Amino acid sequence: MKIFRPGDWVALAAALLVVALTAVAAYGGASGEAVLLIESDQGRWLYPLDVDREIFIPGLLGDTVIHIHDHGVDVHDSPCRDKICVNAGTLEHPGDWTACLPNRVFIQITGSGEEEALDDQSF
After folding, report:
1. Which distant-in-sequence residues (6+ apart) come within 8 Å of 122 by Cβ?
2. Is residue 74 included in any domain, yes or no?
3. Nearest partner of 73 among 50, 56, 90, 54, judged by Cα
4. Domain tally for the chain?
5. Rounded to an integer, what is the distance from CA 52 to the centroid of its chain?
6. Tens-place pLDDT, residues 51-95
7. What are residue 116's phi and psi, to 5 degrees?
8. Which of 7, 20, 104, 123 is spaced 20 to 30 A from 38 at the CA atom?
9. pLDDT band at 22, cuts 50/70/90?
10. Which of helix, strand or coil describes residue 117?
11. How far apart are CA 113 and CA 82, in angstroms?
């Protein structure tokens, strides 16, 4: 008794080809340069991560101070009470984000044309 017939081999090869092409489409290709996206009620801003700078973003309670340095981003100061965004640490990879909800400021590192990686944390 044969386990595989010739048609089975063709079907198996076609299935493997589909899986390989799907993996290349989903995970392959150039990812583009990462940029900082900042959103607030006052507008939306994009900044490259290769230039060190200090940014003042107006929000509901006052200015949120953001530092771009060494291809990473830190929230240096915010007028909110709990300072969760300040304590979030350095954002370095596409998909990393933080927000100052009381001040209505959202900060995210994003890349052009790339899928963002899932993180391994849940809240």
Report:
1. none
2. yes
3. 90
4. 1
5. 19
6. 999 999 999 999 999 999 998 999 999 999 999 999 999 999 999
7. -85, 140
8. 123
9. confident
10. coil
11. 35
Task: Concatenate the DSSP letters of all residues of 43-105 into one string.
Answer: EEEEEETTS-EEEEEE-SSSEEEEEEETTEEEEEE-SSSS-TTGGG--B-STT-EEEETTTTE
Structural domain range at position 84: 34-111
CA angle 48, 84, 120 (to 5 degrees): 75
Query: In the structure, what pLDDT confidence band is assigned to residue 6 with cuts at 50, 70 and 90?
Result: confident
**5 belongs to a structural domain:** no
Say if CB 107 and CB 59 are below 8 A apart: no
CATH code of 64's domain: 2.60.320.10
Could you tell me the sign of the dihedral formed by the alpha carbons of 81, 106, 38, 105, in that order? Answer: negative
- What contacts 24+ positions apart, CB below 8 Å, involve 16-24? none
57 occurs within a structural domain: yes
Q: How far is 113 from 29, CA to CA, in rounded Å?
A: 9
